[in-house]
Amino acid sequence: MKNNNKEQKEEKYEERNSDTAEWDMSLSPEELWNLPEFQKAGSQARCKVQEYLMELDLRYQAKTGNSFIRLIESRMKSIESIERKLERKKLDVNTENMLGSLHDISGVRVICFDIKQIYWIARKIADDGRYEIVKVKDYVRKPKKNGYESYHVVCRAPVTVENKTYFMEVEIQIRTILMDAWASLDTKLRYKKNEPLPDEMELQIRKYAKWSRRLDKMVRNIMELSQENDFGN
Fold it and tell me: Which is more confident, 215 or 44?
C-alpha cells in the first residue's frame, strides 16, 4: 500500500513539473538572484512554508495543549554566500550549479523546545504530502564533525509569479533553542573570520556542542515531567 502511495505522489509531482516554468540558465547567478520574479517566487515559497508550520503548530496544540514554536524565521541566501558555497564545493559559479546543487537558497528555520518536537514536525511534513520532499538530513542523530545539530528538510513549494508557476526549493531547518544558540555562535566564529579556526578553539566548540546535547536531554526530561504533572492534575 505504501508503494502505491509513493508511486501516486511521484506521478503527481511529475504532472505538476511538466506544467511549470523554468528559470533562464543563460543568466549568471547574480543576474538571476537580482530578478524581481526570482525574489518574489522565493518569498512566496517561504511564506507558504511558514504558514504550513504554523498550521502544524495548531494541530500540535490541539494534541498536547502546548505550542512547539519558539521562533520562526526565514531568509534568502545572499548572492555572495551562494558564490562562496559553490566555490567551497569546487563547482563552477553558474546558474545551473546554483539551482541544481544548492538546496538552501531559500530557508525557513523553526526553533522548538525539545528534540521530541523536532521529530514530530519532521514526521508530519513527510506524512502529509503537502510538498514534494527533495532531501532530508538528520544532523540530530548524526551531528556534523564540528558538533552542528539540526534537522533539515528540503521541499518544493509551488508559487505563481506573473501567471507562471515555479517550484521553489525551501530548506526547513528544525532546531531546539540550545541547538540554535550553538549554531549561531559557531557561524559567527567560523564564517565571519573567513579563515580556519585555531585547533584549541575547534576543541572548545565541539566541547560546547556535547554540553548542549546533554542539556537538550535534560530539557526533554523536564518537558515530560511537566506533561505528566499536567495530566495528573
Answer: 44
Contacts by 40-43 with C-beta closer than 8 Å and gap 24+? Answer: 40/161, 41/159, 41/161, 41/166, 41/168, 42/76, 42/105, 42/106, 42/168, 43/76
Judged against a pLDDT cut of 60, whether residue 231 lies above it is answered with: no
Q: Which helix (H) or strand (E) holds 197?
A: none
DSSP conformational letter for 224? H
d(CA 106, CA 75): 6
Q: Please tell me the number of Cα atoms within 13 Å of 157 on its side-chain side.
A: 25
The length of the chain is 233
User: What is the pLDDT, as a whole number, of residue 100?
Assistant: 97
Strand, helix or coil for residue 77? coil
Rounded to 5 degrees, φ, ψ at 27 are -75, 150
- Summarised one tens digit per residue, pLDDT across range 90-112 is 999 999 999 999 999 999 999 99
Cell numbers 490541539 label which residue?
62
What count of other Cβ atoms lies within 10 Å of the Cβ of residue 132?
18
